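FIELD: query
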Amino acid sequence: MHLEEGAKKRLFLFVLTGLAGANRPCRTASCSIIEVSPMVRDGYLYGGAFIAAGLLLDRLTHPLWAVLPFLLAFFFLWFFRDPERDIPQQPGAVVSPADGKVTDVSPVSDGGEKRTRISIFLSVFDVHVNRSPIAGTIRDVRYQRGKFLDARSPLCAEQNEQNIVTVEGDRQTLVFKQIAGLLARRIVFYPKVGDRVARGQRVGLIKFGSRVDVVLDINANLSVKVGDRVQGGASILAYLPPSGELAAVGSASASERAR
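FIELD: result
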């Protein structure tokens, strides 16, 4: 049986409403959120295209040919969902930049300094909207071309296509990476260098399976371990000590080495 005219109208209205009010990045220094929408704009674009294809096949051919486009449409509408999150307000909290599973927590060397890296794997079933781990100013955004290895591979952190973002906060500077995976083919980042972002603010998107890394001070107090599930903007990964405490820790370490 072909779709009724009323059902077709409801599908078109749903897509048009989404396109009119889909998420747009915040560009002002005082703005801390993106306009509210149940999903990223891409969901309406992909979903709308497959809904249109399904309606066309339903009208011109046998209705069974429309099943696959409709299933793909609803998959994209679901995949690009963008739920609201309660952002933690505790001082020094570093929130997860994405939904997913913590796959690695390990020390790394960054510019000759010891840092801690927290890696989070996003499967195709996770929300793929990215959020800023801390409040601060975007100091650098560097896009690196590369491979598309499995995002769970240790090699992907250095070899895969990725976007490397440096955020300067009140307590210290933090780096987080949007890393493409085996299926991911596009990384989106909204803010520009010099923009001010709020903790948990939506800042971008990685399409399909991917990974995010957060590289922070070695003295941060970690709140997660390998195997934990986290939510973007809502789960606390670590707590950063105040800048004065970091300086004191560094001075104490230097004194110990001098003895």
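FIELD: remark
The helical segments are 5-21, 41-60, 67-79, 156-159, 243-258.
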